[in-house]
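2024-03-11 09:14:02 INFO receiving multi-entity request
2024-03-11 09:14:02 INFO entity count = two
2024-03-11 09:14:03 INFO echoing inputs for audit
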Amino acid sequence: MRDIPERLGLVAIPVSGEPVFVYCTIEGEQARRESWLEELVGYTEWREQPIQTLARVLAEQGVADGRIGVEKRHLSARDFAELERSMPKATFVAADEVFDRMRAIKTPAEIETLTEAAFSTDIAIRRAFAQATVGSTEREIADAIIAECAARGGGRVVFLTVATGPNGSLVHAEPGDARLEPAGVIRTDFGVGWGHYLSDIARTAFVGPITHQQETTYMKLVGAQEETIASVRPGEQAKHVYRACADAFARRGLAFDIPHVGHSIGVGLHERPMLQPFDETVLEPGMALMVEPGVMTTDGFYHTEDLIVITENGNRVCSRSADWATPMVLS
Amino acid sequence: MRDIPERLGLVAIPVSGEPVFVYCTIEGEQARRESWLEELVGYTEWREQPIQTLARVLAEQGVADGRIGVEKRHLSARDFAELERSMPKATFVAADEVFDRMRAIKTPAEIETLTEAAFSTDIAIRRAFAQATVGSTEREIADAIIAECAARGGGRVVFLTVATGPNGSLVHAEPGDARLEPAGVIRTDFGVGWGHYLSDIARTAFVGPITHQQETTYMKLVGAQEETIASVRPGEQAKHVYRACADAFARRGLAFDIPHVGHSIGVGLHERPMLQPFDETVLEPGMALMVEPGVMTTDGFYHTEDLIVITENGNRVCSRSADWATPMVLS
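2024-03-11 09:21:47 INFO inference complete, emitting structure
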């Protein structure tokens, strides 16, 4: 449970032998049912500290004085201090990058799940937009997106931005009471759980009559996204994609003011590599990247986001249930 | 954004002078709009590390070689290591308990929000249950709860358990395709955002015809909850409430196998005090506690949960929109 940060689930993976899953007994039946790990050790909250149970498991694995890699990004400073106190003879090393690399290349089954998630999320957004009209509120559109997505198998809503009018300039606006107005802009950015994986799709549409300025800017944005996607190839570094997007924006006279233009996705929302100017990860087949350029206008933020899977020779776009290359105009 | 754990929001609070909010520029307009803090310093993701920006702010506050309290439960081990590296002359002290104490006593406005959240969540559950019949799926009931709650002002779904049949024994089951059957049990545990605050309500109902065994067990559970609530008084320790619940279960011949029987709530789901056997926090007026006993039966987990606000002389139950003291039986 993400909102009870102390209720830790921990896995101790020895170099050889079976990994052990340390779980909270309150979630015991679920841990046994959902995990493929076979060695499970439970701790009872408040009677036992999860870190103490982990230290015992690690000692049984023979590494009480060993060298232990820790995903320090996901362990709190308090828990890590407790772990160091509990295992004074062990050496702890930040192992975040090992896990980043391991998660970056997806299995075919993972790609299938991520594709289903992204494609279904896109259908849900398209259908919810199609039902919206002048007068619809952000919240009504949000509810429609959630319902359409749930009907297709979507789970936990990770985040859901729906913005129109003055909220358009808030990148992560919560849906509220603002209503669609003629010649307005509607934007969503929506992430939802699909089994243990996530989707993350952003789309922008327009309320008729669309202005010439709106159409021009939108076409520039999707054109720049296409060019960015074309730069996603095995052998290139992640930062190359960021550079390609900056260049595509410049060529179209679009203001480029985004710290990243995309990210890997999987069990986490922003996995590595990140399509940002300093990420030198070399792209490889099997990576799943969200490519999400956006541009701030006087009319709010325009945003589009697609799932790209890297193949042997290039990439495949996996998230388009409809033609987003021309602006969607609601009546 | 909770699912991008690296996108930190940090506040540096000096002993005297203005607190400074360190925010990510991507969320800049939102930070300015939603925060009551007036001093804001942004960092641009990837170009600047949030911890470096924080260290600069702290140095400007004059504590480069000072003593700095850190909420270590909410800072990752990686970020804390970075903070120690960035401020080699400072002394860092775990300050989690200071924040726990500060959050434990709610202001009248906070109590009003928490009450509205809890009461509205309870109405939503009651109405969704009332619409359910034999054949309804867990997912349909979950969707109805979400829709009813959103219509009343509920925000982000923090977690939503809906369980019937064999899933009844999973404490935090995700809603699935299981259908209500005659003489079955339906249970939910639902937490939702209300502005920056949270609700958390658990309820159990029955599909007719209710069996004698079900009715007896349910009545024992709600009776035990009443006795537990009666033990919530200023001046008592939190662990006393746990003990009172254990005693109430024993007197009724109910198996008592729960690590805690409730918790404080606010901006976090499980705040302090926790109603667990080792928490010696003295209860005070203005505390908001969830009291949530549950009992595992051959028929699944029976669970009930209410918001209790501690007053000068005792407490007030703030979450009952209907009579849950007798079993709700769906047709």
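2024-03-11 09:21:48 INFO post-check: The radius of gyration of chain B is 22 Å.
2024-03-11 09:21:48 INFO post-check: The mean pLDDT of chain B is 95.
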